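Hypothesis: this fold can be encoded by more than one sequence.
Test: take the structure tokens below, design a sequence, compare later.
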């Protein structure tokens, strides 16, 4: 399990390379849901998502020899950009393996940060290809979620929320592989155990709930959700340990509910987020989160790397 000291150490180590993202009042979202609502705007983070926090904390911890071998990441897009950014910051070459249908914007952004991008099959196929490449080349692997240094980096989001909103009652977090909710839950529960932490999985890519039910990590195969940032085929052992111990509830949202939330945030809050970044707000708007009237709640907008072609497909004509 992470410690609060490890998360604080991560914050000190990466503070000069990331943004302290704002906590924005979301009055209309609160009025719709009977809460006092705020949005942690990680879509405004460097590289457009929270992923850079964990990537920087991992890469800065590698030895010069490990960095010299080059870094490897497997990702649907946001982790790829975070590792590419971190590699450039520490002078390490980066290879990322992404699914063949990864959003073009995320592919080009990863290349723009200096990464060599390999496109291969589904995300599950990409993980297998990544293992092959690592075995061939000896790269240092930066896992997207199941690594304590990555979790500590993601946990810095939780520290900022508590400092900016001391009277918070609940934090609602989108869940892909689960690194973000594991890190936030550790930061929140080890500081303020009474604060509820609630995870949100997309209907076509639930893997943490089945893992909790099975008592072990399960592979769901190919995910099917508009929220590509949450479409990992499995969670991890370390993530599962943290979720089991620290997360109060997990709920599921549909793609339609995610799209409704994305449009709500765009129209009412003037925030453009990717579908994964709208999942937490979707759970509130769809009535999936059980909170008392007037509760002070933070929804984490985890990313804003929107594929404009796909966005055009979901916008009402």
């Amino acid at each position: 399990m992470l410690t609060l000291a490890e998360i604080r150490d991560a914050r000190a180590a990466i503070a000069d390379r990331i943004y302290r993202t704002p906590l924005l009042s979301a009055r209309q979202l609160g009025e719709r849901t009977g809460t006092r609502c705020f949005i942690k705007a990680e879509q405004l983070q460097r590289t457009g998502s929270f992923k850079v926090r964990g990537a920087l904390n991992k890469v800065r911890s590698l030895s010069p020899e490990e960095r010299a071998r080059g870094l490897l990441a497997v990702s649907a897009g946001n982790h790829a950009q975070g590792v590419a950014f971190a590699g450039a910051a520490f002078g390490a070459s980066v290879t990322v393996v992404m699914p063949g249908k990864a959003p073009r914007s995320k592919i080009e952004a990863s290349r723009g940060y200096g990464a060599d991008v390999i496109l291969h099959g589904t995300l599950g196929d990409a993980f297998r290809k990544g293992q092959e490449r690592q075995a061939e080349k000896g790269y240092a692997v930066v896992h997207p979620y199941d690594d304590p240094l990555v979790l500590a980096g993601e946990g810095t989001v939780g520290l900022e929320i508590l400092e900016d909103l001391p009277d918070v009652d609940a934090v609602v977090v989108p869940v892909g592989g689960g690194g973000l909710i594991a890190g936030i839950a550790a930061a929140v529960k080890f500081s303020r155990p009474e604060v509820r932490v609630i995870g949100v999985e997309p209907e076509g890519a639930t893997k943490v709930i089945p893992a909790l039910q099975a008592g072990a990590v399960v592979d769901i195969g190919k995910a099917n959700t508009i929220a590509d940032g949450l479409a990992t085929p499995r969670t991890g052992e370390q993530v599962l340990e943290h979720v089991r111990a620290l997360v109060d509830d997990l709920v599921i949202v549909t793609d339609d509910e995610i799209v409704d939330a994305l449009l709500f945030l765009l129209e009412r809050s003037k925030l453009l987020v990717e579908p994964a970044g709208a999942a937490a707000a979707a759970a509130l708007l769809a009535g999936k989160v059980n909170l008392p009237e007037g509760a002070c709640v933070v929804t984490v907008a985890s990313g804003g790397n929107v594929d404009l072609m796909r966005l055009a497909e979901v916008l009402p004509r």
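The longest strand covers residues 196-202. The radius of gyration is 18 Å.
Hypothesis status: open.
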